[in-house]
Amino acid sequence: MKNPNKIKLTSLSTKGGCGCKIGPADLAAVIKKLPPSIPNPNLLVGLDTSDDAGVFRLTDDLAIVQTVDFFTPIVDDPYSFGQVAAANAISDIYAMGGKPLTALNIVAFPIHTLDKEILSEILRGAGDKLKEAGATLVGGHSIDDKEPKFGLAVTGIVHPNKVRTNAGAKPGNKLILTKPIGVGILTTSIKRDLLSEEEITQVTKVMTTLNKIAAETMDSYHVHACTDVTGFGLLGHASEMAKGSNVTIQIFKDQVPILPRVRELAEAGAVPGGTKNNFAHLEGSVTFPEQMEQIDQWILCDAVTSGGLLIAVDGGEAEALLDDLLKNGVDAALIGEVTNEKAGNIIVL
Q1: Is the pLDDT of residue 41 over 60?
Q2: Residue of 18, 20, 226, 301 marked active site
Q3: For a designed S-S bond to 187, which of 74, 81, 113, 229 qualifies (C-beta 3.0 to 4.6 A apart)?
Q4: Taking CA 35 as the corner, what is the angle to CA 33 and CA 37, rounded to the nearest 5 degrees?
Q5: Residue 226 annotated to the active site
Q6: Which element (helix H / strand E) includes 57?
Q7: Which structural domain, as residue segments, surrounds residue 86?
Q8: What CATH number did the domain enclosing 99 receive?
Q9: 178 and 157 in one domain?
């Protein structure tokens, strides 16, 4: 269903474009000043790491995975916006090796100035995506706000011994990415009316695709680390993996899948602020080839919404996992490897 009021939802956002997170440097500065939480031996993954979600052990065989994510509209169709927001929030559960179980809606909406049908469509889109994931909506919270925002708090389950973090990558691992990048540049282009309907449909499909099949496919392989590529971009999330695992990550730039027209639109100026912030934050942590142009460096840092999984898998199993992903309809590519050459850093080749 198209926007009931023919409202350009993305124009109602003061940020627009990529639905970017607070920058990693600013966020780290804030978290650093917080008092430590009460120690608990059952907290398996918490604030002291840069992982995608928290994990809390309930029993020897069961842990819960918890995450929350929300943002302003990045597409104009409300149903699609709801689907994107839901897929994005659920993705953190998949990245941690979990199965999504329940969800709570988080709604901020100008209820007196926008047609209520718009909000109904946002919630319907999210609900349909939750059904696809096999998760149950159990409630939510809403406020009247001048700027529309939507997302979900999602709870999943995982065996405590099967939690996948971004801190377990080992030298010899190969890196597989399960979705193309460039989403931030394209969603910024939507706000600027630079994309055709066909192109909007294409990038929306990327964002609304669950990481469910990718997560289920990798479950039978020796995956040592995993994260989903979202607001901090491919290199930002790869950097968290490199630092958390105390390894070096090499990215083969020519093997990274990039959505059509991304470079052209970036050259035209459609590079979101979040992407440039990601690039600036990584200064000193990434080595680029001398001949690599600034635009191409920005693209590798592009702030993504509902991106793919970045999987560090045993090197001997990488080709088999890649083949299985492709057979299962996942748009995956082998984009790099893990070494111990310069621990905590990224080298773009």
Answers
A1: yes
A2: 18
A3: 74
A4: 135
A5: no
A6: strand 54-59
A7: 9-162
A8: 3.30.1330.10
A9: no
